[in-house]
Every structure is written in structure tokens, then in C-alpha cells.
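ok trying this again, last paste got cut off
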Amino acid sequence: MAVDEEQQRYSCGLDAAVDVIGGKWKALILWELHTGPQRPGELRRRVAGISEKMLIQQLRALEADGIVHREFHHEVPPRVEYSLTAFGASLNAALLPLGDWGEQHMERIVAARRG
């Protein structure tokens, strides 16, 4: 697909951003990676409720979009670590105000969803 066709796919910048972080898990994975490189097992423990299969799927998608970097260490046993790219760090910075908003309004959101 040509760049012009890809740009036409999005109606605005928010549409493009949501396409990259869409779903329940990607933003949570990004948030956990802000502290530095982590192994998949560490991420799985820190992102409550995510399965190993889902974590790997989401990491692969984020890697394909250039948001995370996968580093394979040739050691015994082999070790893999994921870290944010500069592109991913800029996305994480953009998510901070959204996280702040969620913190400020968490109780209200929970109350509204209880009915």
C-alpha cells in the first residue's frame, strides 16, 4: 500500500494513534516499559490479567509498528528483552495526560459503570 493510501486510511491523527495503541493491552505494556528494558516474564507479571500468548501477540504488533525494540541476547539460556524505541517513548509521553485523567476520574468511572 502506498503512503498516500495509508494516510487516507486515517481520518485524523487521533485515529492513527488509536490504531497503534488500540485494545486493552498495548497502552498497559507501554506504560510498564517506561522504566526500562524488560523480559517477557517480567512484563507478564506486571500487566495483570494478560496471558502469555496475548502478551507476545501485542509485543509483536508494537515491534512491527516501531514502538518497541526486541533484543535477543545470545547466552545460555537465551534471553529476550523488550524496550521502548524513541518513537515508543514519544507515544508513552503522549499517553501520560490520559493516565492522569483516568487517575482523577477513576472513582466516577467505576460508579457510572455500576449503574
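PB: full thing came through this time. Residues 24-114 form a domain with the Arc Repressor Mutant, subunit A fold (CATH 1.10.10.10).
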